[in-house]
Amino acid sequence: MRSRLDTSYAAEFRMPRQDVGAWLAKTYPSGPAPGTELCDDGAGLCLNLDSEAAGPPAGAGADAVTVNVMYEGPDRALVRFSAFTV
């Protein structure tokens, strides 16, 4: 976590590749479907939630959330999460 005028959070973790879709749907049930537009370089899937779109879930304490998923082979995915206030 970093804080100055805005607060930002970042996390990175690995999970089974086959569980990524279900995890995104459970974590962001009202969010848009994950896709490949506006992904970081190398990401095979991403999800972008901001106040102009569906927005982060109520109580998230953030104005925007970005999730980028990099596939590390057939069984594993690296998930990079960031969130910030505006």
List the helices and strands and how they pair.
Elements: E1 2-3, E2 7-16, H1 20-27, E3 45-50, E4 64-71, E5 76-84
Tally of strands: 5
Beta-strand residue fraction: 35-45%
Side-by-side strand order of the widest sheet = 1-2-5-4-3
Characterize the largest beta sheet: strand count, sense, and whether it forms a barrel.
5 strands, antiparallel
How would you describe what is shown here?
With 86 residues, this protein is mostly beta strands. The protein is built from 1 helix and 5 strands. The chain has one helix spanning 20-27, and strands at residues 2-3, 7-16, 45-50, 64-71, 76-84. The protein has a 5-stranded antiparallel sheet, with no helix packed on it. The longest helix is centred in the first third of the chain and has 8 residues, at 20-27. The two termini are 14 Å apart. The model has no long low-confidence stretch (mean pLDDT 85).
